[in-house]
Automatic annotation (TrEMBL):
<dbReference type="InterPro" id="IPR052018">
    <property type="entry name" value="PHP_domain"/>
</dbReference>
<dbReference type="InterPro" id="IPR016195">
    <property type="entry name" value="Pol/histidinol_Pase-like"/>
</dbReference>
<dbReference type="GO" id="GO:0035312">
    <property type="term" value="F:5'-3' DNA exonuclease activity"/>
</dbReference>
<dbReference type="InterPro" id="IPR004013">
    <property type="entry name" value="PHP_dom"/>
</dbReference>
<dbReference type="InterPro" id="IPR003141">
    <property type="entry name" value="Pol/His_phosphatase_N"/>
</dbReference>
<feature type="domain" description="Polymerase/histidinol phosphatase N-terminal">
    <location>
        <begin position="2"/>
        <end position="66"/>
    </location>
</feature>
<protein>
    <submittedName>
        <fullName>3',5'-nucleoside bisphosphate phosphatase</fullName>
    </submittedName>
</protein>
<dbReference type="Pfam" id="PF02811">
    <property type="entry name" value="PHP"/>
</dbReference>
<dbReference type="GO" id="GO:0004534">
    <property type="term" value="F:5'-3' RNA exonuclease activity"/>
</dbReference>
Amino acid sequence: MIDLHTHTTASDGTDSPFALVNKALSAGITVLGLTDHDTTSGWAEAVSAARKPISLALGAEISTLTEDGISVHMLGLLFDGENSEIQAMLSDARDTRIPRMKKMVELLRSDGFAITMEDVIAATPEGATLGRPHLADALVKNGVVKSRDEAFAELLTNDSKYYVTHATPTPEVAIRTIVAAGGVAVIAHPMASRRGDVISTSIFSDLVAAGLHGIEIDHRDHTSSERTELRQVAAELNLVITGASDYHGQGKLNSLGENLTDPAQWERLESLASQRRVVTP
Ligand code: AMP
Ligand code: ZN
Ligand code: FE
Ligand code: FE
């Protein structure tokens, strides 16, 4: 059971890396991808929690924006965590999330919602990459909405008037940086249209030219016709196909292992990294 996309309290998940690895072991997962938003800060704890028979594919989910302003999430797996270029890119991305959050809080406040930046910081685990789910948690705590899901549905989607983007690399720059750090790049949930505008399938060839290795296809935010279309794109461009849960703990319905990657696809993806970096206890 191979689940290559999950989140912890190092970003906007609700389980610590330790708890995530233990839940994955109980769920029978054999390869777990750890992909917190714009950070590798959960890696060490996950490695210390790992024991047979689980292997870890350490990585990060990098928020990017196309030149047309479309949000694209790029999974980087199996890169060298000590690589200074990728760490600088992740650190810049985390930094820009703070002024972005302040702007979102100001927009909500100016419409009369009870929320302050201090509330959001209080809802964010120490050291975590700041994200909209933390704003959602603060809105729940203040009684504005009942759940993360309601906060997103009512106030925080990408096309909401309260949504603000943050400065991020383009998908091509993120891919090149992942590859230069020895890792593999997989575009996350590229057709998740309920999150807002999505890229057109014609730009996949540009991403492949930048070094893209794979497409996450089996993901709860993709319909069956979107999966069929993406399988055609993957076949045409000879890309690896992955499936994953995008587990976030209690914050979202996604359950560990609900979507999986085929072992042959994983074997191929792993072979594309510059060296063997899977953590096998
Ligand atoms: P951000 O990175 O700050 O733009 O926040 C995006 C994150 O919000 C993504 O990781 C999503 O997993 C999460 N998200 C999107 N929709 C929902 C939802 N309905 N409930 C909980 N989390 C969500
Ligand atoms: Zn998330
Ligand atoms: Fe994502
Ligand atoms: Fe994710």
